[in-house]
Amino acid sequence: MRKLLAILTFTILYTAPNKNNFNELFINVAESGSPCIVSIVSEKIEKNSNMFFFNPFGFEEPFQEERKSQSLGSGVIVDIKNGYLLTNNHVVEDAEEIKVILYDKREFEATVIGTDPPSDLAILKIEADNLIKAKMGNSDELNIGEWVVAIGSPFGLHLNHTVTAGIVSAVGRSDIISKTNFENFIQHDAAINPGNSGGGLFDLDGNLIGINTAIATDGFSRSNAGVGFAIPINQATRVMEDLISGGKVLRGYLGVYIEDLDENKAKVLGINNTKGAFVVIIIEDSPAYTEGIKSGDQIIRIDTIDAIGMNTRDASKIIKGELGSVVKLTVFRPSMRKKISFDLTRANIVVKHVPYWGIDEDGIGYIRITKFSKNTFKDFSEALSDLKNQALLGLVIDLRSNSGGLLSNAINILDKLTNRGETL
After folding, report:
1. Does 120 participate in catalysis according to the annotation?
2. Residue in 332, 233, 318 with CA at minimum distance from that of residue 275
3. Is there a catalytic annotation at residue 158?
4. Which of these is catalytic: 153, 197, 316, 401?
5. CB of 110 within 8 A of CB of 125?
6. Pairing of strands 200-202, 277-282
7. pLDDT, position 156
8. Which residues of 287-311 are buried (b: 16+ CB within 10 A; e: fewer)?
9. Handedness of CA 415, 417, 422, 424 (dihedral sign)
10. What SS3 state is found at 210?
11. What percent of the chain has pLDDT over 70?
12. pLDDT for 333-369, tens place per residue?
């Protein structure tokens, strides 16, 4: 008995994980992952419009001041033969010049192979040898609570290839950046900050499982608050393959935004049940808009699949599909107390300067602005006019870039509307 106890004690002591073994996992990821990560310096020419300048002939011609600016991001080497890098679209959007700095300090000019604003991903190409690419993982196998490691260039080149660690806090996060984006984020608490965008998120086996994209803050600071978001690598890989093969991503979409309907919301809306995915907003000129689906409808069947009791995340996955394919939606319309079926053909998404506006059930309007051009004010005014005709009570403007130029232009637009006697 004493001999058996001694053997058991020795076995437990021998096999128990120790501090050095645990540290080794992170050290190995840092060593294997860092050479796959690059720093990206994008040079842009920003145009700040003066909306109060008018030419003497009465035609509106905003005066624009140009200035060069640089922004810093990160990227991941994904193909050493062709020199392809994966990063965020917002890192290189509208860039005149793009410089890539490798782990070994070599610098290269990069060209853009393709960008996809709805997923916030882009593919770059550099002409370089002796590259090291990331080992692809499977983001579908991630577990909440699993350790992850983030590598990127926060705040500046002097902090490039910074390694931080945390755990997976949640998966399937959406409506983080914009309702009109394709979002299925991995939420994690590894410290990421401005400059980390486009960098890699790795598991403890050194596999790339995400592309760091955004952080949540308190609204007053741009630094990390322990809530970071990464695009799952499985989603990024599908986008990457389309961009490399054709320069753009073709998706099938219906143009509906849905959310779960709880008892409180159902009571406020006068709905007797919470069954099905609740349609919040319909995008104008989308298949759903054309066929007559309305805000407030409850989707209770998708093709032959019962959607009653299905959460929004699962319903969205089924609704999205191949471009040109047909889906049958059965909805319950509370205002008519009856079921209606629609056959909708999934269409391709067209990204516009002011691609979307709508109003929710509380009367709050939503306008998304992606870029500013000479037509933006006209498009914005049309969107606002449409919303006001629907008894607009408030307004949210969604800017697809954190550029100061966009913010100043948005403020100028609102000032100009106010000067014209518009009330918001």
Report:
1. yes
2. 332
3. no
4. 197
5. yes
6. unpaired
7. 80
8. bbeebebebbbbbbbbeeeebeebe
9. negative
10. strand
11. 59
12. 877 766 777 776 766 655 454 555 666 656 677 676 6
